[in-house]
């Protein structure tokens, strides 16, 4: 019998693997949280499948998402990234990723970790929603609005409410698996 999955999952194996093994599972590791911030910011205006297919290229291009390295990318490195066909070559998003890396480090220094900071918005426990269908799942929430607003005040770029909501889903701060999905938290 075939497993029931959320309606956004296509038959593409990379999507199935991502859904079954990552999406909605709590992430507390700063490196992984930074990776998802980068990937989600590059996803804006594109499909998540496009990003997943380029994920390994992003990993190489962004030095395995080592935040301290990304924060110190030089102009030469930026020019290499703009020419790298393996990633999304959007200069504004590339510059934002570097800028956001510096602010990510500031948050780590202020709170001890980015994880402590971001998970404090949900009292360090995932929000488990009760959706019957993918149609019920919102693109934003009051909480994603608040986090996006707070990050914007800190100077973050390319991280609006929709991007933050997707980040919360990806990192398990929110479990938006539909009720019938085999991955849903109980």
From TrEMBL:
<dbReference type="InterPro" id="IPR004597">
    <property type="entry name" value="Tag"/>
</dbReference>
<dbReference type="InterPro" id="IPR005019">
    <property type="entry name" value="Adenine_glyco"/>
</dbReference>
<dbReference type="Pfam" id="PF03352">
    <property type="entry name" value="Adenine_glyco"/>
</dbReference>
<protein>
    <submittedName>
        <fullName>DNA-3-methyladenine glycosylase I</fullName>
    </submittedName>
</protein>
<dbReference type="InterPro" id="IPR011257">
    <property type="entry name" value="DNA_glycosylase"/>
</dbReference>
<dbReference type="InterPro" id="IPR052891">
    <property type="entry name" value="DNA-3mA_glycosylase"/>
</dbReference>
């Amino acid at each position: 019998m075939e497993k029931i999955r959320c309606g956004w999952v296509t038959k593409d194996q990379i999507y199935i693997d991502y859904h079954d093994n990552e999406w909605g599972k709590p992430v507390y590791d700063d490196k992984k949280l930074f990776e998802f911030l980068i990937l989600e910011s590059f996803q804006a205006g594109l499909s998540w499948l496009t990003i997943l297919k380029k994920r390994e290229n992003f990993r190489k291009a962004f030095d395995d998402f080592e935040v301290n390295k990304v924060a110190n990318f030089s102009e030469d490195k930026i020019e290499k990234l703009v020419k790298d066909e393996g990633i999304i070559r959007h200069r504004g998003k590339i510059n934002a990723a570097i800028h956001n890396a510096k602010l990510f480090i500031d948050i780590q220094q202020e709170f001890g970790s980015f994880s402590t900071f971001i998970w404090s918005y949900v009292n360090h426990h995932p929000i488990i929603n009760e959706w019957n269908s993918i149609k019920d799942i919102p693109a934003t929430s009051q909480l994603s609005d608040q986090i996006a607003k707070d990050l914007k005040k800190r100077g973050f770029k390319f991280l609006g409410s929709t991007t933050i909501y997707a980040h919360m889903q990806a990192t398990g701060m929110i479990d938006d698996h539909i009720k019938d999905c085999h991955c849903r938290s109980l």
